[in-house]
Structure formats: structure tokens, C-alpha cells
Amino acid sequence: MSPELVELALRKQRLQLKSADLRTDFVRHTRTFTPLFHGIDRVADSLRWARDNAPLLSGLGVFLLVARPRTVLRWARRGWFGWQLVRRVRRFVS
């Protein structure tokens, strides 16, 4: 084998080792975000469930509106104010 090929093979091996070290460091640093990603996944799963079960949730909402109108309207008002607050904060942040 020529010295140039040996040098290239050694350089390739050093780069592969460095890449493996960088991947290991990356995985170690991203482990701190794991709880955040799990939380985001749970929220996404909940939203998907709500979308898939919209008739059930609508029926439950109508039932609660008939059974306890004051409570439902109070929570609806709170939700409306919360939604408005989120919209204003988004407008402010963007």
C-alpha cells in the first residue's frame, strides 16, 4: 500500500472516531429535552384523541350545558378570556 493511501485510511478512521464522539455528545446533550418532548407528544396525542372523538365531546358539552348552565357558561367565559390573552401575547411576541 502506498503511503498516501495509508494516510487517507488513517485520516478516515480519525474522522469516523471524531464523528462517533460528536454523536455521543449530541445524544447526551439532547437527553435534557426528553421530558419536554414527552410532554409535547402527550399534548399532541390528546388533541388527536379530541379530534377523533369530536361527536362524543360535543354531546358531553350539550349535556353539561343543559345540566349545569351556569358552570358551563362560567368556564366558557374563562376559556374565552384565556384565548384572547393567548392571541394578544402571540401578537406581542411575534
Topology of helices and strands:
Blueprint: H1 3-30, H2 34-52, H3 54-67, H4 69-93
Account of the 3D structure:
The protein has helices spanning 3-30, 34-52, 54-67, 69-93. It is an all-alpha fold and 94 residues long. It has a domain at 1-52. The radius of gyration is 27 Å and the shape is elongated. The N and C termini lie far apart (61 Å). The model has no long low-confidence stretch (mean pLDDT 93).
Helix-and-strand structural type: mainly alpha
Query: Could you estimate the helical fraction of the residues in percent?
Result: over 70%
Largest sheet: none
Total of DSSP H or I helical runs spanning 4+ residues:
4
Distance between the termini: 61 Å
Overall geometry: elongated
The count of strands amounts to 0
Secondary-structure element series: HHHH
Whole-number radius of gyration? 27 Å
Share of residues in strands: under 5%
Which stretches are low in confidence, meaning pLDDT under 50 for 5 or more residues running?
Answer: none
Mean pLDDT figure: 93
Task: Label this structure with key terms.
mainly alpha; 0% strand; elongated; 4 helices; 94 residues
Entry summary:
With 94 residues, the protein is an all-alpha fold. Helices cover 91% and strands 0% of the residues.
